[in-house]
Design a protein that fits this description.
The protein is an alpha+beta fold. 18% of the residues lie in helices and 17% in strands. A 4-stranded antiparallel β-sheet has the order 1-2-3-4, with no helix packed on it. The longest helix has 17 residues.
Length: 96
């Protein structure tokens, strides 16, 4: 089987596996879900963006990449400290 066929097979299996799962809010079959907790608004990013990545590393959330309001790429990297509810723009040190 060629690589394209394998990728298609993997995608179909993933779709079938997800079809039977429940949504983050609970079951989709109409039965009531357990209390999923509550959401609260915390400090916002200093650079609004969409289509970005948000990995967790060392207890911090890092926001990397994405597109700004005009669709241009965002190069700023921001770190969120949930304990302090504070964002910091990460700047690379320039040595040399």
């Amino acid at each position: 089987m060629r690589t394209g066929g394998i990728l298609l097979l993997v995608a179909c299996v993933a779709m079938l596996a997800c079809a039977g799962s429940s949504s983050p809010g609970g079951p989709t079959d109409g039965t009531p879900a357990a209390d999923p907790g509550s959401w609260e608004i915390r400090s916002g990013l200093s650079v609004p963006r969409t289509e970005n990545s948000v990995p967790e590393l060392g207890g911090f959330l890092w926001v990397v990449g994405g597109c700004g309001a005009t669709g241009d790429p965002v190069t700023a990297v921001e770190r969120y400290d949930p304990a302090a509810d504070a964002w910091t723009r990460w700047r690379r040190s320039r040595k040399g």
